[in-house]
Design goal:
Elements (H helix, E strand, L loop, with lengths): L1 H19 L4 H15 L15 H16 L6 E5 L3 H6 L6 E5 L4 E3 L5 E3 L8 E10 L10 H5 L2 E10 L12 H6 L6 E4 L3 E2 L12 E4 L2 E5 L9 H14 L9 E3 L7 E2 L3 E6 L5 E6 L1
Keywords: Lyase, Signal
Pfam families: FAA_hydrolase
Protein name: 2-keto-4-pentenoate hydratase
């Protein structure tokens, strides 16, 4: 069955590439994204070369880039991006996007204060989020939220650390962001809270402070209106893109409140009943 699914996914990918008319250019574009990531340079604005790049085409580039970057490894989890009306409007999109979280990018916010070095990023951004930690693998699309809840073991406060560095920020479009795996770089996960003891995450009012002053306030429902529906969309979208999920994988559902520049200082992310994360940006 797994082999059949892989064969089907590969066949669909071939059809997609043929329909695009650029064929092998997918790999060439993915190589540009990969080279930028590996060399610590800004991501290319691919739509400057291909102004009509579609959502499907941007996912094709994203998948090729992600698989090349992963090599023999597998994702640490998956993330949703552009999950608010404001961010979709900002980058000219009518849909959110989904991508992988790369291994090596995860930081343990449950063990104590975390240090983030801006020198490791081209353009460090901060997003206050909620993390879902899987207790079981997910190999196929899930029918509904109840099915997803059966797969989730823990919830946690989370901070995503995307690297929103592109060669031309003024021309940047949603397809460019998606092709770069939504600028996936790092993330901090707080102390896991068992699902049975977790609060109503849509009603959370998480607050981020910098050097004691509040800099962001959000609400759990900021992510497309409902955390669980967004997590379900994320899972099913990535399954459709040919990925599978394992026990321990982290799901991030998008920014609560605003995406902020990673300024130096001491931060506290208070996610209410999900606990807090202390981190410093240097």
């Amino acid at each position: 069955m797994k082999a059949a699914r892989r064969t089907c996914a590969a066949f669909l990918a071939v059809l997609l590439l043929a329909a695009m008319g650029w064929g092998a250019d997918i790999q060439a574009l993915a190589e540009k994204v990969y080279s930028a990531a590996m060399e610590g340079k800004p991501f290319p604005v691919l739509t400057a070369e291909y102004p009509g790049m579609t959502v499907d085409e941007s996912y094709a580039v994203q998948t090729a880039y992600s698989k090349k970057r992963l090599g023999a490894d597998r994702p640490a989890g998956f993330k949703a991006g552009l999950t608010t009306e404001a961010t979709m409007k900002r980058f000219g999109s009518d849909t959110p996007f989904a991508a992988v979280l790369f291994p090596g990018g995860g930081l343990d916010g449950a063990a104590g204060p975390v240090e983030v070095n801006r020198a490791d990023f081209g353009n460090l951004m901060l997003e206050c989020e909620i993390g879902f930690i899987l207790g079981e693998p997910v190999k196929e699309s899930l029918k509904d939220v109840d099915a997803l809840k059966g797969k989730v073991a823990f919830l946690a406060a989370a901070i995503e650390l995307p690297d929103l560095a592109f060669t031309d920020m003024k021309q940047l479009k949603a397809a460019d962001i998606n092709a770069s795996a939504i600028s996936s770089k790092g993330f901090i996960v707080g102390k896991p809270v068992p699902l049975g003891a977790a609060p109503d995450i849509n009603e959370l009012v998480p607050v981020l402070s910098l050097d004691g002053a509040e800099v962001n306030r959000g609400r759990g429902s900021d992510a497309l209106g409902d955390q669980w529906e967004t997590a379900l969309w994320l899972v099913n979208t990535m399954i459709e893109q040919g990925w599978t999920m394992e026990k321990g994988d982290v799901l991030l559902t998008g920014a609560l409140g605003n995406m902020l520049p990673g300024k130096p200082g001491s931060y506290v992310y208070n996610a209410g009943a999900l606990g807090a994360i202390d981190f410093t940006v240097k």
